[in-house]
Design goal:
With 524 residues, the chain is an alpha+beta fold. It has 3 domains: 149 residues, no CATH class; 132 residues, EIF_2_alpha (Alpha-Beta Plaits, 2-Layer Sandwich), CATH 3.30.70.1130; 173 residues, no CATH class. Helices cover 68% and strands 9% of the residues. The chain is built from 14 helices and 6 strands. The strands form 2 sheets. The protein has a 4-stranded antiparallel sheet. A hairpin with a 5-residue loop joins strand 2 and strand 3.
Length: 524
């Protein structure tokens, strides 16, 4: 046995060996490659086209916030995202699918919920803005897009979506502005009612404590001072009457007194007492003082009465004994003392009353300050709400008119001219590479599974002998005919497979978008 062949079981991969293998297996490789390419091309050409259309919307402000402050406080990005949630809601998308006749083929077999989910994934929203110096992004425009199978349909869907964005933005701003104005009006009415209630409470308190209010303190102090003066004068008069009584009681006079015939209750004695009281009052008060005017009027009345009762000079006088005179004077003193005592009681009562009023004034002042602070707080709150309400009414009026912020369609959606998917050129190049790989793999597999002898090396691995000479196989007419028949059958079979694959692929894949969408996601 030759050791050169015994130790080497595997064929040596040389250019000559590769060419021999290709000559032997070329029909297998060609068949696999053609079948693969045909199947791949059929599948690629059967995939449905997907189109995408988009429209750009510009955000414009009609009035600057320097002149009218907007009552819509939500940010533009937040409001657009809020509208987006309404746009992609199940109810709205269901209405759009029905009104525009979307997904006509799928609606026969796919539930509406799944179609809504598919359409929600097909809608895109992209915000456009500029960087701010304070950080963040200031949005000035946004783009709405939609992906579908039919160019005109995707353009119609995008334009309808833009119309919904514009209408919903206007409606939401008007609704929010009106709601804000109504809320501020209600708050303003509540504060106004509270302010009126506070005013009624303050008026009721002032009426209930009129004499104790701080503005009455000066008058109360003046009255109290006057009462103290009258009380002091009353005490002095009582002291003089007491001294006079003591003097009369100690006086012992037996001389007869010749006086005009007068009554025992002498007006002259009363007149003298009033004159003394008037002299005391004038030392403390002016002639316009009430008590001075009262005593003066009494004196004038007594003088007129005495003048009317003047004794007739022709009438004889009579002698009055001292005891009778003294008793008459004591009776007058007692009468005047009782009047002064009663007056003292009245003065002390009035003094105590006014002292109570003056003493309660600080407490009333504190309570009034508390009421005033509550009213001032309500009044300030009312003025703030009134200012906010006026601004909210102006903003609401603008929103009802032209709107402070509007969406203007900048680029209307047009039917796309070319599909965005699938990328057939890339897929065909990938199919070509796959066909080459599968063809090479089929050749290698055929060589591995073939146990026949083709080379001296293969013979040396089976029979322990030396090869003297190696000749190529000389084909006969019969072998060439058989080879041609096999090739024709293989070609016919490949064509049949390709035709069947085209029919089945067009039927199965013609309405299936999931493969294209999966390839789009994979490419992204």
């Amino acid at each position: 046995m030759n050791s050169d062949f015994a130790d080497d079981d595997a064929p040596v991969l040389t250019a000559e060996y590769v060419l021999d293998a290709w000559r032997r297996r070329r029909w297998i490789a060609i068949t696999v490659a053609v079948a693969t390419l045909a199947a791949a091309f059929v599948v690629i050409r059967s995939l449905p086209n997907l189109y995408r259309s988009s429209a750009t919307v510009l955000v414009e402000r009609a009035v600057s916030e320097e002149f009218v402050k907007a009552s819509v406080t939500a940010g533009l990005e937040t409001r657009i995202q809020s509208i987006q949630q309404f746009v992609i809601s199940r109810e709205h998308l269901s209405q759009m699918i029905d009104s525009l006749g979307l997904y006509p083929n799928e609606r026969r077999s796919v539930p509406l919920v799944d179609l809504v989910a598919r359409m929600r994934n097909d809608i895109t929203l992209q915000l456009k803005g500029v960087e701010q110096t304070t950080g963040g992004m200031a949005t000035y425009a946004f783009t709405v897009g939609y992906t579908g199978r039919y160019p005109q349909t995707v353009a119609n869907v995008v334009n309808d979506l833009v119309a919904v964005y514009t209408a919903e933005n206007e409606s939401s701003r008007q609704r929010e502005a009106s709601t804000t104005a109504e809320f501020l009006r209600q708050q303003l009415d509540e504060v106004r009612r509270a302010l009126d209630a506070q005013d009624r409470q303050t008026r009721a308190y002032s009426m209930a404590h009129t004499a104790e209010l701080p503005q009455q303190l000066a008058a109360n102090l003046a009255t109290l001072e006057r009462l103290h003066g009258e009380l002091s004068l009353n005490n002095e008069q009582q002291l003089r009457l007491t001294d006079q009584r003591q003097r009369i009681e100690q006086e012992a006079s037996t001389a007869p007194l010749i006086v005009p015939a007068v009554d025992s209750a002498s007006p002259e004695t009363r007149l003298a007492a009033l004159k003394q009281q008037l002299a005391q009052l004038r030392r403390s008060f002016s002639t316009e003082y009430p008590d001075v005017r009262r005593v003066t009027a009494e004196i004038q009345s007594l003088e007129a009465d005495i003048a009317a009762r003047a004794p007739d000079p022709s009438r004889p006088t009579r002698i009055v004994d001292p005891e009778t005179r003294r008793n008459a004077e004591l009776r007058d003193i007692d009468a005047n003392m009782r009047v002064l005592k009663q007056r003292e009681i009245e003065l002390r009562q009035r003094t105590a009353s006014y002292e109570t009023l003056v003493g309660s004034t600080p407490r009333r002042q504190l309570e009034l300050d508390q009421l005033s602070r509550g009213r001032d707080s309500l009044s300030q709150q009312y003025q703030q709400l009134l200012t906010q309400y006026d601004g909210a009414r102006q903003a609401a009026a603008l929103e009802q008119g032209h709107g402070m912020e509007t969406f203007r369609l900048l680029d209307r959606a047009l039917p796309p001219q070319a599909p965005i998917a699938p990328d057939r050129r890339t897929l065909e190049l990938m199919a070509l590479g796959l066909a080459i790989v599968l063809a090479a793999a089929s050749v290698i597999a055929a060589e591995k599974l073939d146990s026949s002898v083709h080379t001296p090396t293969d013979l040396g691995a089976v029979v322990p002998t030396d090869v003297v000479v190696s000749l190529r196989r000389i084909g006969t007419r019969r072998t060439r005919r058989r080879t041609l028949v096999r090739a024709a059958l293989a070609a016919a079979g490949s064509l049949a497979v390709v035709a069947a694959a085209m029919v089945s692929a067009d039927y199965v894949l013609g309405g299936s978008e999931w493969i294209v969408r999966m390839l789009m996601r994979g490419g992204a």
